[in-house]
Task: structure prediction
Amino acid sequence: MLIDIAFKNLWQRRLRTILTILGIVVAVQLYLSIGSIMRWYDEDLQGRLLAFGGKVYVQRLVSGDLISEDFPSSSSSIDTEMAQELLGGEGVDPQTSSLALFVTVERSLRPFSPPLVIAVGIQPGHEGAFLGTFAVSDGAAVLRGERDVILGRDAALHYGSREGEMATVGETIVIAGETFTVIGLLEPTPTLFASAVLLPLETAQRVFDRQGTVSAVILTAREVGGVAAMRTWVETTYPALSVTGQEELAQNVEEMYANMRLFFNAINTTIILVAIVVIMIVMVVAVMERRREIGTLRAIGARKRVILGMIVTESLIISLIGVILALPASIGMNQLAWGSFYPSEILLEWLRSFGIAIAIGVLASLLPALQAMRVDPLESLRYE
Result:
């Protein structure tokens, strides 16, 4: 009964109703997009931490650098001679460790993200020191020639011969003015690895004019549980160097993400408040226009709870229709803008948004419902 009346009242003012629903669609679409971004960052963080398990990165961070902002650090510089000494250190497995050079080739447009393309110079045969358990999905996994490169998915898209297409195995690409041959493509990985271009260390040092230095030494413990002893040896022997393990990375990145979440949560809170205000304004205006109708209903015996239910139902219908229509809009916008976000991620956020939509509808209806319940039944009789 109340639903039928609510739909009838909304249809009588359909232009206003449609415009209000469109406003809710835009608000919910933005809410879903931000939720998807936050979810993507969380999953990416977990993937990165998993890859760093059992390893420590030894770097020389310049003053003011933060691990969360510049990791792995492209500004770090360690003499190759000292780096070789680290590989022979106490508890270090030299076969699964490596010297590494990190050079940012293309910066990302996304906030709080690693570079779009980062060149990773690695010792041939030691690619696993950087990649961990991530594997090559196509081509070779070992850099054999001095101009061989292995690309992550984002890097492959960047160097694809056509926009939207990835570079393929056997294709030649240009980095810093020199040509290289793609010998392998990585499986889907977190952003740091997806943006990587792996090339032989000596080639990277020559191409980027970093002869005699590396950015980091990636150390893997010879024995399970030997990470603590290994890093203690490094910190004691080389106090000027910075040692970063899985725990420090998790703590520092989490601090950075906490600020990001605070920012995004502030945006989402603003979106919800705007949606409430928009529906509230529309419903208040609707109640003012229907004072005679409401007064007549009260005069013929309609109770206050009926009037309350009518206003709340109309507000909920507007809110819920807006949420339903926001799903296809969000999928389309996220695919267009980000490409790497998939409908399944948005769907989870969309299902959660129904509870928020109900809260928005109820809160937005409180003031107009109170206004409607206070209409004097005698007021309608004055106009008859």
Notes: Residues 64-69 have pLDDT under 50 and may be disordered. Residues 54-244 form one domain. The chain has two domains: 2-43+260-382, 54-244.
